[in-house]
Amino acid sequence: MAATMAEGEPPPFTHEDNRRFLQMLRDKKQMLGIGSPKVEVQFQDLTVETYVRIGRRELPTLPNCVVNAAQELASYSHMCTPRKRAVKIINAASGTIRPSRMTLLLGAPGSGKTTFLKALAGKLDLSLKRKGKLMYNGDEVNSSTPQHMHAYISQYDLHHAEMTVRETIDFASNMLGTNNEFEMIGEAARRKHDVVNEVDKNLDSFIKATTFGEGRNLTTNYIIKILGLSECTDTLVGDEMRRGISGGQKKRLTI
Questions:
Q1: What is the phi/psi pair of residue 130, to 5°?
Q2: Distance of CA 74 to the CA centre of its chain
Q3: Are 248 and 232 in contact (CB under 8 A)?
Q4: 226/230 Cα distance (integer angstroms)
Q5: Residue 52's beta-bridge partner residues?
Q6: DSSP-based three-state secondary structure for 75
Q7: Cα(242)–Cα(176) distance, rounded to whole angstroms?
Q8: Local structure of 14: helix, strand or coil
Q9: Average pLDDT over residues 163-172
């Protein structure tokens, strides 16, 4: 017997609905003159270097660690000079990453791909030193650069396992201070829907995507639909000890 939809339950959001929803979202933003944020990353003579020990005490054995720690203390008090040499992980790299494009970074293991991405995002370890010029939209990156302009997503997904998908997105939305862009688009769509009394599949999918949902945060509803997380909205994120969403869903939630 086919399952029937309970009264008040939202209709299923299919892949075709999702495609039409994204198309409608883009069209509505163009109609309202809302441009998508774009960041062009430019780097000139970007160099990342660190210092490594030379000699016999380079291997991380227990005696070497003890001697190295003692030597560090002695070097801080200028009693001796540490035996280190500079190693360049990235050497004078220059280029531009265009906005609204996907850039593929290829390299052998240990070639510095992660270090390069962290350098572009301003997330380098304290033991690494960056040289050269790094600019976002022509402005050089410094401590006053807004944090929401750049991010680095590691291969490890770190979340609060006891929170649901909706709670996680709600928390991120509140912390990042999202604007009312989605509310403006939704209100414009509803006004048009009231005036034009005819069947519009794109508009129907748009209204269906934003009207239904237990949460009151419209921004969260949009993000859930865009990322295709509708089927696991109220599921715990989970971890190694608690069953939760799948690995692919967790990666989308991280993004």
A1: -105, 135
A2: 42
A3: no
A4: 9
A5: 85
A6: helix
A7: 27
A8: coil
A9: 86
Judge contact between 237 and 247, C-beta under 8 A: no
Q: Which two tokens stand for residue 201?
A: 């599949």
Per-residue pLDDT band at 44 (split at 50, 70, 90): very high
Spatial CA neighbour of 47 closest among 94, 107, 104, 108: 94
Q: For residues 227 and 156, give the distance between their C-alpha atoms in angstroms, rounded to a whole number.
A: 19
Give the chain's mean pLDDT. Answer: 74
Strand partners, 129: 49
Tell me the C-alpha to C-alpha distance, in Å, between residue 121 and each of 93, 142, 220: 15, 11, 25
* Predicted confidence (pLDDT) per residue in 168-184, tens digit: 888 887 776 655 555 56
Q: Confirm if 32 and 179 have CB atoms less than 8 A apart.
A: no
Amino acid at 6: A
Enter the pTM of the model: 0.62
The length of the chain, given as a count of residues: 255
> How many other C-beta atoms are found inside a 10 Å radius of the C-beta of residue 68?
17
> Residue 76 in 3-state DSSP?
helix
Distance CA 22, CA 36 (A): 13
Q: Where are the beta strands (DSSP E) in 7-157?
A: 41-53, 84-97, 129-136, 139-140
